[in-house]
Design a protein that fits this description.
Length: 228
């Protein structure tokens, strides 16, 4: 006979990024972070701010709640530390909400930096009042069960990306980006170059730039073919 699965499997101990590593992403646009990771790293574009477009950055604390269940989201409260971003995988379930304003309020009281899910949430008016950055694929008033099984602190897949505890997560109006732990230092190093290049091009656009140099060079080199 197969034993019943545990309601939750919880991993509490994992390597967290340093304060300096986390600070390097504070206030950085998600587009810059993606550019520093060769153009990739964003969750599915349907995952967007709900209630308020609050930008955030923090440490990934993944949980897997499964469709129509949110026990793992509650379980994450027992692991979360100030500055963590609870990322809840639901297999992109849209039948019920995975959380509402009350659970988000508990997360805010715990010091959680943001909540991200590939599922739906509910209680939009309350979410606005709580003020915790909340990113989800949509809204529905349907409520979930709390039966499990689920996981907390173990790797999950959310919005098409693998997310592990200890990754860095950055979010703003454009969406959510995940920086794998092994790429944090390299991404920080590239961010400085990306920011400088963006600032340079922005200044040129504001002073009348019509065609960037790299495109003009391709034209001058004959890489574009005229047809009639």
């Amino acid at each position: 006979m197969i034993d019943d699965a545990p309601l939750l499997q919880i991993r509490r101990a994992f390597v967290r990024p340093t304060a300096a590593q986390i600070a390097a992403f504070s206030g950085v646009q998600t587009g810059f972070v993606v550019d520093a990771m060769s153009g990739r790293g964003a969750l599915d574009g349907r995952i967007k701010p709900i209630g308020a477009a609050n930008a955030f950055s923090g440490i990934a604390l993944p949980c897997y709640a499964g469709p129509a269940d949110n026990l793992a989201a509650f379980g994450a409260l027992s692991v979360a530390e100030a500055g963590d971003v609870i990322i809840c995988a639901t297999d992109s379930s849209t039948g019920t909400a995975v959380t509402g304003d009350l659970l988000l309020g508990m997360m805010k009281n715990t010091g959680v930096a943001a909540f991200v899910t590939d599922g739906f949430v509910r209680d939009i008016q309350g979410i606005r009042k709580v003020g915790l950055p909340c990113f989800a694929a949509g809204l529905t008033p349907n409520s979930p069960a709390r039966n499990g099984p689920g996981t907390v602190g173990l790797p999950v897949v959310v919005g098409g990306l693998a997310v592990a505890a200890g990754d860095i997560v950055v979010g703003d109006e454009d969406g959510v980006v995940v920086v794998p732990a092994a790429q944090i230092d390299a991404t920080i190093a590239r961010l400085m170059r990306v920011s400088a290049a963006e600032a340079d091009l922005d200044a040129k656009v504001k002073t009348g730039l019509r065609i960037p140099t790299f495109i003009q060079n391709l034209i001058d080199a004959g890489r574009f073919t005229e047809v009639s």
